[in-house]
Amino acid sequence: MAHKVLTVPVQSNAMEVFYFEPKGEGPHPGIVLCQHIPVAHAGIEKDPVTIKMAERYCEQGYAVAVPFFFHWWAKDADMEMKRNAFRDDWTRMDLDAAFGLLASQPGVNRRRIGIVGHCWGGRIAWLGAATNKAYRACAIFYGGRIKLPMGPGTPPAIDRATDIKCPVIGFFGNEDTNPTPAEVDDYDKALTAAGVEHTFHRYDGAGHGFQTFSIPERYREKQSEDAWVKVLDFLAAKLERP
Residue 70: which domain range? Predict the structure, then answer.
């Protein structure tokens, strides 16, 4: 499926955004898709998993924007350095820019936009839902580090649960170590205490990255496809897609 590579300014940087446009005139609902970290830190073009996921959502009628959140550093810079230097204040600017770019596309219904994230992107999706009340739905796949602060003077993302105003769906493997089942319990408690509508699905026999087909030892086809059905049903309901 063809896509466009757009750019949007964030501070003094140009952030790449891969844009996938469904067939037809619309108006289309939209998704900001937040990528996982293993390959994506080197460029979305080197991340076949995220590209395939974007294509699958697009085939269902969603306009999909995939921002490159690691634009603050050179693509060939060390991943661990990027992981340690990642900052929520910068990421919030990236999210706002990506949302604005997606919402401004012809044929996109800006009142029907959700956010989805896998792995590292799952944490970003939580942050996005907490910092942008325009999102109508949030889907988190095995997002770790939600209980940790990232960047100077920023609270742990879990502390922002009270700011989330859209429904949340989550997908987690019971063999995951980041987040652990106990940490997922804490996510659940935080959203419950905040009064956020949410549903979590937990899979036995699955660990972290169970939708990552490029890593056979992690990929779990049965659990992955079950999650696909459930997330598509959730998005269709919450974004009111015809």
Answer: 4-238
Q: Contact 197/232 with Cβ under 8 angstroms?
A: no
Total domains in the fold of the chain:
1
Task: Return the DSSP state at 161.
Answer: G
CATH number for the domain harbouring residue 143: 3.40.50.1820
Record the tokens describing residue 225, joined without a space: 């496809």
CA distance 198 to 171: 11
Total Cβ atoms within 10 A of residue 127: 25
Q: What percent of the chain has pLDDT over 90?
A: 93
Question: What does the pLDDT look like over 196-234, one tens digit per residue?
Answer: 999 999 999 999 999 999 999 999 999 999 999 999 999
Question: pTM of the prediction?
Answer: 0.97
Phi, psi of 161 (to 5 degrees): -55, -35
